[in-house]
Design brief:
Blueprint lengths: L11 H26 L4 H30 L15 H9 L6 H18 L12
Helix pairs in contact: 1-2, 1-4, 2-4, 3-4
């Protein structure tokens, strides 16, 4: 399915680096989602998740471009962030009906993991009986 994916044009070290960058970005997105939804009602957590996911989809290309500038000579310093994605693009990522690439499918999986983090039942801190 992914034989022609641009991931396969990278060297082995380039692929390892890209996976590492992607894991760091994913952990940051999941952690930020967790922080943003703490002790909020479910009705608020769902929109927070969606905004966090859209923000990731919108802003992460700049982080990846910074990585590519490290591994490819001659890429200019520039902003690659464009307008936020339209709702149909976000829906396509979450339903895996958009581009058939490792990147798009990985973003879709991350989106659903962020959703799980957002809706996961949360414990409220209990006061110590001695207080």
């Amino acid at each position: 399915m992914y034989e022609g994916d641009s991931f396969h044009t990278l060297t082995l070290w380039g692929q390892i680096g890209l996976v590492g960058v992607s894991l760091v970005f994913a952990l940051l997105a999941l952690g930020l989602t967790w922080v943003l939804v703490q002790l909020r009602p479910l009705i608020i957590r769902i929109p927070v998740w969606l905004v966090a996911f859209i923000t990731f989809v919108w802003a992460s290309p700049q982080g990846y471009y910074m990585y590519y500038r490290m591994i490819f000579d001659g890429l200019p310093a520039q902003s690659v962030i464009q307008a936020p994605p339209p709702p149909e693009d976000v829906l396509a990522l979450l339903t895996f009906t958009g581009p058939m690439t490792l990147s798009a499918h990985s973003i879709g999986v991350l989106g659903w993991l962020m959703c799980v983090v957002a809706v996961w039942p949360q414990r409220r801190k209990c006061r110590n009986a001695a207080d």
